[in-house]
Every structure is written in structure tokens, then in C-alpha cells.
Amino acid sequence: MLGHSTFVLRRIVAVIPVLVGIITIAFVVSRIIPGDPARVAAGPSASQETIDRIRDEFGLDDPWYAQYLDFWSGLLQGDLGRSIITGKDVTADIAEYFPATLELTLAALLIGSLSGIVLGVIAARRAGTWTDRFLQLFAMTNIGVPQFWLALLLQILASMTGLLPVTGRLSAATAPPPSITGMYTVDALLAGDVGTFFEALGHLLLPSIALAAILTGIVMRVTRANMLDVVSRDYIMNAQVAAGLGPRLVFYKYALKNAMIPVVSTIGLNFGFLLSGSLLVETVFNWAGIGLYTTTAAVSQDFQPILAGVLVAGAAYVILNLITDVSYGVLDPRIRKESA
Predict the structure, then answer these.
(1) Residue 162 region, left (φ>0) first, then alpha (ψ -120 to 50), else beta?
(2) Domain range for residue 302?
(3) Global pTM?
């Protein structure tokens, strides 16, 4: 038990400098962007007196180190500041937009994981054939294609066919379901509103496919490699010969189970990547999540929402990777020994 606690504590301590670095870099970048956010907030016809008042209210005239310390002081109290453009509390904005990003990420995780595992198993089962070569090319294409390009392509195809909606979380004529989780598909099911559920699902499909493409390629390659490695092991071959089991049964019942451990770890590690990497996809599909919120803030030079968005995305990525790392270490004692 003491070994478990030491392992977990060591991992947590290692994460702290990463989070501090993420916040510091985001702060520096937000401050060196050309332009005057106070003038943007005041409007083109505002007087210099109004601009000076806004600068004083938000501490923009303070030295950079004073602004940095003020941000940390608020952050440690759970206060992410106010938007200079809207005047709204950024913490409340993050709480409002985060469920949309989480819904999109979970959908992409489900699509990417299932499709990657299925395609990886097919490729391993038909290793060396044209099917295997085609699926490997498909995986590399998914990994290499930029997400924003794929999102735009899917949006264009959907617009031409009219099969799926291409923007937003619901149509303008549909009221959102009663908010429980903030995820429209889940809330619609909880409210028993099947029509709204299917409409929300239709809006969710294209952005989740665009976001899941990289994960599909990664999971497929890992699944294929591990399946081929496991089926070549002596115990698998002995089970097939000694027990008289058919190759199909050995492949799907025994080899697949043992090959899934690294695959599950890969999926867990990429969950944080999906959650923090949805910015471009959300922007293309006008998906009202953290990514679109941060992009809008960047265009208007709104410092606090930019910092908050980067902080949430970075923290989610680091924490989810930490959870996966710790879980893997608890399940496999060899990991703890290697890191001691």
C-alpha cells in the first residue's frame, strides 16, 4: 500500500510544474498579442477617458509581473476573472461551455475507440493481404490529415447532400432540453424527449467524426500490432495445438483479450488529447464549447477567457494522462518498479 501511495504521489508532484508551465506560457502569449483589448472593448468611437477607465479597471496598466501574480491569486481562490468584452464572470462561462466540449469529446472517444479496435482486428486477421494494406493506409491518412481540413470537408459534403446538419448543437427552432448535465443528448434522454435527442445526435455526429479521426488511426495501428504480437506467442500456439481449438476461436477469444491492455492505455492517454484538441473542430462547426469560446476570445483579445480556456484544456489533458498513468501503474506492478 505504501508503494502505491509513493507511486501516486510522485506522479502528482511531477504534474505540478507542467501545469504551472502551461499557465505561464498562456499568460505570456496572451500579453504579447498585438493590439489594445481596452480599445476593442470600448468600441471604435469611445473616448480616451473611457479607454483609460477600462484599462484601470482590469489592471492593464499594471506591470506584467503584477498582472501575473494577480491572476495566480485569483486562480488559487477559484476566480478566473471577468471578460473585458462582456463583463461576465469567466468561471461561470467555463461551467456553461465545458459540458458541450465534454459531450463532443466522449462521442469522439466512443467512435474512435470502437472503429479503431474493429479495423485493427480485421487488419491483424488479414495481415499481409490487400485488406491489411488498405486499412494501414487508411490509418495513416487519418493520423496525418489536419482536423480542421477534415472538418471542413465533412461540412461541405453534408451541405451538398443535406443529410446532416453542419453547424451548432441544435437547430434555431428547437429549444434545448432542461439542463441537468449540460450535454444535450444526455439531457434529452433524461427528459424523455426522443425527438430532441435524435436532433442533438445528428448535430453531434459530424464534429465527433472529425475529432475522432486521429484516434481511429492510432487505435487501429496499436490494436493490429498487439494482436500480431500476441498470436505469435508460444502460449497462444500451444493452446491452439494442445486443446485443439480453432484458429478463429483462439484469435478472437484469447488473443484479443490479451492484446487489449495496451490498447486501453492508448485510448486513455488520447482522451486528454481529444478534450484539449477540439478547438478547431468546434470553431468549424460553431460548436458552443470551450474551444469556440477561447477562439472568440482570442479574436477580440479578451485575455481572461483565453487564459481560462487554455488552463482548462491543458489541465484536462494533464490530469487525464495522470489518471491513466496511475491506473496503469496500479494494474501492472512492473511500471511502479521501473519508475522507482
Answers:
(1) left
(2) 90-339
(3) 0.81
